[in-house]
Amino acid sequence: MNFPQLQIRTTDAKLGLNIVNAKQTIKQPKATQHIEQPAAILDLETTRGIMKIDSSQARRDIGLIGPLESASNFAAEGRKKAMQGIARRVREGNQMMDIAHNQNAVPSIAKQNTFPHKKALGIDFIPSVGSVKLDYEPAKLDINVQTQKPIINAQINKPVYGYTPGKVSGVMMQNPTIEIDFIV
User: Which domain of life, per UniProt (predicted)?
Assistant: First the structure.
């Protein structure tokens, strides 16, 4: 016996998708900066050093003296020699007065005047050591520094942001079908 048959054939639907991706852009511009460094204020105060040199004694030692001092020295030396001459003549006169008691007075006076006195030999440093006097007052230096703070101006720039949304659209690539056949 033949039974009636029912045949069903189906075709699946095919769905296609059109996808456009979203686009996003972000740019961060650099910050705008202005930096200024003012120069430090530098204040220097100096006091000059003072050097005093007194070489008057050294000049005297080598015979370089001024006219007033030279005249005074020559007058003193002349006075001294004159007094020595007077004393010598007084002494010789006294010896001559005593000629009656002293028979060798004339040869003794002659001997005193003809033979000079012995001088000591030695080394003299001209000018004498320590005759130049030095006095020094050192210089003074005062330094004052005033630092200046830097001037910083910074401006932050906002990010540049761009966004294009994506799209998804469906397309039916194949429609579904159902075929039913009835066979007896």
Answer: Bacteria
Q: Note the pLDDT tens digit of each residue in 105-128.
A: 777 777 777 766 666 666 666 777
User: Under DSSP, is residue 50 helix (H, G, I), strand (E, B) or coil?
Assistant: strand
Which helix H or strand E contains 45, and what residues bound it? strand 41-47
CA distance 130 to 132: 6
Distance, CA of 160 to chain centre: 51
3-state secondary structure of 167: strand
Query: Do 100 and 60 fall within a single domain?
Result: yes
Whether residue 24 contacts residue 162, with contact meaning beta carbons closer than 8 Å, is answered with yes
Q: Write 143-146 long-range contacts (CB < 8 A, 24+).
A: 143/42, 143/43, 143/44, 144/42, 144/43, 144/44, 144/45, 145/40, 145/41, 145/42, 145/43, 146/40, 146/41, 146/43
| 49 and 135 belong to one structural domain | yes
* d(C-alpha 66, C-alpha 51), whole Å: 23
Domains of the chain: total: 2
Task: Tell whether 135 and 47 lie within a shared domain.
Answer: yes
Give the domain range for residue 94: 39-148
Rounded Cα distance between 31 and 76, Å, is: 95
